């Protein structure tokens, strides 16, 4: 059995020149698992052995207990994805070595965590087995064609189906969907130990409470905890609830130069400027960075139907964006020089629902970071958002009435 052979390798029982003429040093990665009884058994240990005589690679993950699992490859760039049935998986902090390099780890969904490892060449999962608390994975060389085929068959995670809530409009309230960006295995922008996903979630929960307290809005969130969601699943959830507006919450960071202030992005297939195009391109790759291939683009018929509705929807979104910018300018000086922008963000492509992406500031700017970490400042922004949405609702009713004539 493959697992037996690997255990013997790690145990040092079969390390003879006849079988393994060239043995790359073993790399041991500590990946602490927590939740579900993991802590008592200590950290899981991931070990990598490369044996050139077999032309293959092995990964062994020692688990504190038996648990559900799956392993598959993803393309763009080549990665190995290992999903484990545990609530939490800490990213291994080790130097890169060998054919496999740890990228990130984190919560994927309720009861699941994901470990993403970069591959330095196209490899496929030739065999995988769980035995005696060890998950052993054999990786075999693959040409680009074979690797691409395996990557296309990689499974994805759809958001759980949720029933649409009762009609909010019938109760005189507008339904708003807030979308805290990133989450789970995808931290988003980072600066030191500050992660975009955490700030976005705090903003979402606090904004939701403020909007609900007015009695004029019903607020739903795409996530209320630290979990990963596909970009398309975020939009699908909002559309299924018949939301009046979808607002995705984000932060940004720069590694060179300086940038600060909030900005609001409206949907547009043509970006307002090169910087906005780059931001959209980066955000649209969130699924791939998390180890999932994402959903394919719609077919030509679907796109044609979408194009028939999109102009009016984008116009409604721009009106909302203008109101939000005006309210932020009136309440805070922490605004970018050109705060109203446009780009082709994947989460803003719903043809029948006004959608916006609000970027509250830059983690790389000390002033922005201090403001975004301040509950008082976030509350001020939340109140500005309420004023903007109140004005937009009136303007949107006028716009829709004009469209019906």
Automatic annotation (TrEMBL):
<dbReference type="GO" id="GO:0030288">
    <property type="term" value="C:outer membrane-bounded periplasmic space"/>
</dbReference>
<protein>
    <recommendedName>
        <fullName>N-acetylmuramoyl-L-alanine amidase</fullName>
        <ecNumber>3.5.1.28</ecNumber>
    </recommendedName>
</protein>
<feature type="domain" description="MurNAc-LAA">
    <location>
        <begin position="235"/>
        <end position="390"/>
    </location>
</feature>
<dbReference type="InterPro" id="IPR050695">
    <property type="entry name" value="N-acetylmuramoyl_amidase_3"/>
</dbReference>
<keyword id="KW-0378">Hydrolase</keyword>
<dbReference type="GO" id="GO:0008745">
    <property type="term" value="F:N-acetylmuramoyl-L-alanine amidase activity"/>
</dbReference>
<dbReference type="GO" id="GO:0009253">
    <property type="term" value="P:peptidoglycan catabolic process"/>
</dbReference>
<dbReference type="InterPro" id="IPR002508">
    <property type="entry name" value="MurNAc-LAA_cat"/>
</dbReference>
<dbReference type="Pfam" id="PF01520">
    <property type="entry name" value="Amidase_3"/>
</dbReference>
